Amino acid sequence: MAADAAARPPRRWLRELARLDALDLALRLTLLDLLLRPIGQREMRPLVLGLAAAGLLLPGWQRSRALWAALAGLTALRVALDWPLGDNHAWLLAYWCLAAALGLAARAPRTILAGNARLLLGLAFAFATLWKVALSPDFRDGTFFRVTLVADRRMEPATRLATGLSPEALAALRARVERQPEAAPGDAELAPVPTRLARVADLATGWTLAIEAATALAFLWPGRRAAPLRDPLLLVFCATTYAVAPVQGFAWLLLAMGVAQSPPRPALRLGYVGVFALVLGYGALAP
Amino acid sequence: VRLARRLRWLPVALLVVVACAQIALARRAALSPWVGGGFGMFSTTDGWGRRQVRAVAVRPGLRRELDPTRVPPMVLLRALALPSDRHLRALAERLAAQPTRDEGPLEAIELQVWGARLDRETLAPRGVLLRAQSVRFDGR
């Protein structure tokens, strides 16, 4: 302790962070996610923001059953009111808040939250993989990334860097993708997509399938054999995917859930907080 | 405490049930895989934002194409994301309530929801009809 007190602030903060309880850190990161990416419309948004701020600022509120029950109710209500438009993040957040409420109401909150976090993460990645591998032919054949790299303006810097396309060439391809189907000329009149764009898209397709399938397997594999792979895979997924995918809130939720199921190792705590901050940085640097 | 312990796997069960229902709805009712809680985001180009609705008001001796973007956005977005009977009926009701200079009783509003499939080599879009429905108004 004396050595800690004498250490310079950055080192001392890192030590304190590494010692944080997994449950507390997971709940804090979830509340931070809610503050940084407020959810819901009109009346709901201030309520969620108020609860998240109270959970972070008021002593004892972070582990309050009532707070998490209220957040579970509000996040579920948001999904119901928005049906069918709620995205993956909205659903997963509602399940996670419910898991927190149930866990904090039980005698062994750490066990319940860790179990739910592991299975929710594993299943979310498993269903995402199922969609990409079996249910969406246009993902498997690379069309999805060819279109997304061109059409999603938020990915423009990454696309230009990876493909070497000029702003004009990218704009021309985007106009082609965004044209109304009936206004599009026949395929014979159009040149194929540039080879480098096709290669980058194929690489992105393969990488996404590999990392998501591996993460699903690591989290769902019974027993301890795959356990050492879980945290590194999730951290690599978040650090790489959200550098280009503009869905910070989803990344933060995955990381909060990841912390809850991670073994008590300081390096892992720091890894999760570090990637949380990295994703925050991606957002700050985004155009 | 006992209830919480009994319900401890409820979030996991809900995820599985909702995700399976989402897959069924996407296969049978043209739900966009991007929504509905099945983790199909970033798996297909068939997002609701790439879909379109075509609407035609049918009166005796007259067919008039309508602008579906004149209705409240959520009504249109729901019909695009999940073109179910309920969502198409709600859209038709809103379109029927729009002021018009056309005379004669409104017999029906014909709705078509179109998606776009993109060619892998050229990225040229091709329209795909996802759902067509005529909502009858019987002379309103």
Topology:
The complex is a heterodimer of chains A (287) and B (140).
Chain A: H1 2-6, H2 9-19, H3 22-36, H4 44-57, H5 65-82, H6 88-105, H7 109-135, H8 137-140, H9 143-151, H10 156-163, H11 167-178, H12 195-220, H13 227-244, H14 248-261, H15 266-285
Helix pairs in contact in A: 2-15, 3-4, 3-14, 4-5, 5-6, 6-7, 6-14, 7-12, 7-14, 9-12, 12-13, 13-14, 13-15, 14-15
Chain B: H1 2-6, H2 10-28, E1 52-59, E2 62-66, H3 73-81, H4 85-96, E3 108-118, E4 125-136
Antiparallel strand pairs in B: 1-2, 1-3, 3-4
Helix pairs in contact in B: 3-4
Written account of the structure:
The complex is a heterodimer of chains A (287) and B (140). Chain A has 287 residues and is mainly alpha-helical. In chain A, 76% of the residues lie in helices and 0% in strands. Chain A has helices at 2-6, 9-19, 22-36, 44-57, 65-82, 88-105, 109-135, 137-140, 143-151, 156-163, 167-178, 195-220, 227-244, 248-261, 266-285. The longest helix of chain A is centred in the middle third of the chain and has 27 residues, at 109-135. By secondary structure, chain B is α+β, with helices and mostly antiparallel strands. Chain B is 32% helix and 26% strand. Chain B has four helices and four strands. Chain B has helices spanning 2-6, 10-28, 73-81, 85-96; strands spanning 52-59, 62-66, 108-118, 125-136. A four-stranded antiparallel β-sheet of chain B has the order 2-1-3-4. In chain B, a hairpin with a 2-residue loop joins strand 1 and strand 2 (62-66). The longest helix of chain B is centred in the N-terminal third of the chain and has 19 residues, at 10-28. Chain B starts with a helix and ends with a strand. At the A-B interface, helix 6, helix 7, helix 9 and helix 11 of A face helix 1, helix 2, helix 3, strand 3 and strand 4 of B.
